[in-house]
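Ops channel
N.P.: pipeline sanity check, posting one input/output pair.
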């Protein structure tokens, strides 16, 4: 469904944020984009959704093909009309509107509203509450629900688990699984928490310093020693960068 090839994004016409990024998101699958802060994950997502222009950034090389159409440097509203919806990391909802009003903002009162309440039962109980009074997990549910009101074929979610309790994250993962099963929605998740991402994803990419440095199935990534050490905290170098882990491992082989 989505094919990204050798993507390069430049900020302020001089700063290269991502370099040569390539990835694929097959139809009906959930793909995770992993990496630490500053790796380039959110920039990649903004490039896919058309919001780079707000940050004085632009795609300068490469291509983004969605269902056979080129998306690079298209306006956000055009990309949304093609069937792509973004759940951003911040500023997810309208605080002064109720839950029900937030759901109606994208398309008006639509046929999917009742279904959203089925996928997220907590929202049904809170439909009259202002979004500014919701917890972090409830706001995330509402943001996902609002995006789903557009009936997207591809859902982009930036930092699903950020700032949420493990119990709430587990609930969100289960809700997204239910949505994928019911609607067949394809998803690309940007996530720092590798445990969460590899629990739900069919395939994963790891970014470091604006590049994809590793990709594979959840099983392959979990078994990769560098990923276990850095992202899963298994081993003694969990606080190092991916690149530092590789250098550390090389030096350990050379110097004992």
């Amino acid at each position: 469904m989505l094919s990204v090839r050798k993507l390069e994004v430049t900020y302020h016409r001089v700063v290269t944020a991502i370099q040569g990024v390539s990835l694929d998101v097959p139809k009906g699958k959930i793909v995770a984009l992993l990496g630490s802060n500053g790796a380039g994950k959110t920039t990649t997502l903004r490039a896919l959704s058309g919001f780079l222009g707000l940050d004085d950034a632009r795609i300068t090389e490469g291509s983004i093909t969605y269902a056979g159409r080129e998306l690079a440097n298209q306006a956000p509203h055009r990309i949304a009309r093609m069937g792509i919806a973004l759940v951003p990391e911040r500023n997810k909802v309208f605080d002064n509107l109720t839950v029900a009003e937030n759901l109606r903002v994208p398309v008006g009162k639509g046929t999917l509203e009742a279904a959203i309440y089925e996928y997220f039962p907590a929202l049904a109980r809170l439909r009259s509450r202002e979004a500014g009074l919701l917890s972090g997990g409830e706001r995330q549910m509402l943001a996902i629900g609002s995006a789903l009101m557009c009936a997207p074929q591809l859902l982009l979610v930036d930092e699903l688990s950020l700032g949420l309790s493990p119990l709430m994250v587990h609930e969100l993962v289960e809700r997204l699984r239910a949505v994928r099963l019911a609607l067949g929605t394809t998803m690309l998740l940007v996530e720092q928490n590798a445990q969460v991402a590899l629990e739900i994803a069919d395939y994963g990419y790891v970014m470091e310093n604006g590049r994809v440095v590793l990709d594979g199935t959840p099983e392959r990534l979990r078994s990769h020693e560098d990923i276990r050490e850095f992202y899963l905290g298994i081993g003694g170098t969990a606080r190092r960068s991916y690149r530092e882990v590789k250098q550390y491992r090389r030096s350990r082989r050379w110097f004992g």
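N.P.: looks fine end to end. Confidence is low (pLDDT under 50) at residues 251-256.
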